[in-house]
Specification:
With about 50 residues, this protein is mainly alpha-helical. The protein has one domain (about 1-35). Helices cover about 50% and strands about 0% of the residues. The longest helix is centred in the middle third of the chain and has 12 residues, at about 25-35.
């Protein structure tokens, strides 16, 4: 909730990004950056790793 309020996005959006949803905007990247800084996620995946 704290990150959602800070970044002015829906808490559901933060949840989906934290669980691997693809970032589609600068705001999404900002949310992911906040999640990394708080240690909630370890990083993000770039491209297809299949």
């Amino acid at each position: 909730m704290e990150i959602a309020r800070k970044e002015k996005v829906n808490a559901i959006r933060v949840y989906f990004l934290a669980h691997g949803k693809k970032a589609k905007s600068e705001k999404d990247y900002s949310v992911i950056k906040s999640l990394i800084q708080k240690g909630i996620v370890s990083g993000w995946r770039i491209g297809n790793s299949a």
